[in-house]
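Training component of the fellowship. As part of building independent skills, the fellow (R.M.) carried out the full modelling exercise for a liganded target. The chosen ligand was zinc ion. The inputs are recorded below so that the supervisory panel can assess the work.
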Amino acid sequence: MHAELEHLLALQEAEQEILRLRRLLESLPREKAEREARLEEARKELDAKVQAVKDASMEVDRLELELKTKEGEIEKLEVRLNSTKSNAEYTAIQNQIKAFKEQNLEIEDRVLELYDRVEEIKREAAGEEEVFKAKEATFREFLKSLEEEEVRIRKEMEELAAKAEGIKKATDPEALQRYESLMKYFALHGGVVVSPVVGGVCKACGSRILPNDEVKLLRAEEIVQCKACSRILYLPEKSRAQG
Ligand SMILES: [Zn+2]
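Fellow's submitted model of the complex:
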């Protein structure tokens, strides 16, 4: 293999790894936002349950007040009943008292039902709160590990960048310049600038290379580029042994 190809391959490897890590780093905030949204959703569900407990309790209070008001009315009506002289009024008041009492029986039933319901929702809310707290704890752990991962990735990227710089310094400027001008284009297309030739074909673009170029690759005296995609070509050790 041409001596500079070793450098270019090592450089490409480092730069591709930097690219991969950069994408990974960019994907972290998205994952954080997704997890945050799910936690927020769970929080809203819990809030709704707590609100349901409050609503049901308020309904109990309202009904109990209604019950008391009606009982007061009944007492007043009973006083009137004892003092009335008219038969018709007596019957009317009696009917009114009867109606109120029947209504109160219904309200009492409703209150009893609601007592049970409130207890049930309270139990559910307590259970959901436990689940939510666990989710919250998991999220906090995730945030912590996210921070650690970010630090780790940045450190690794810095190390790779330093390594890439070292390789660049050791590389022949002309070969490096060729590599870098190709990378300007290929960085957005997978970042492969140095492509292996396998079975007489440029692996990156799939084009067959000229027999003449294959001979040049074997001689390893100059840098050969793919006629189709312009990438810098190399023969992997294995195919050289076979070829
Ligand atoms: Zn090619």
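The panel noted the following from the submitted structure. The chain has two domains: 3-171, 174-242. The radius of gyration is 41 Å.
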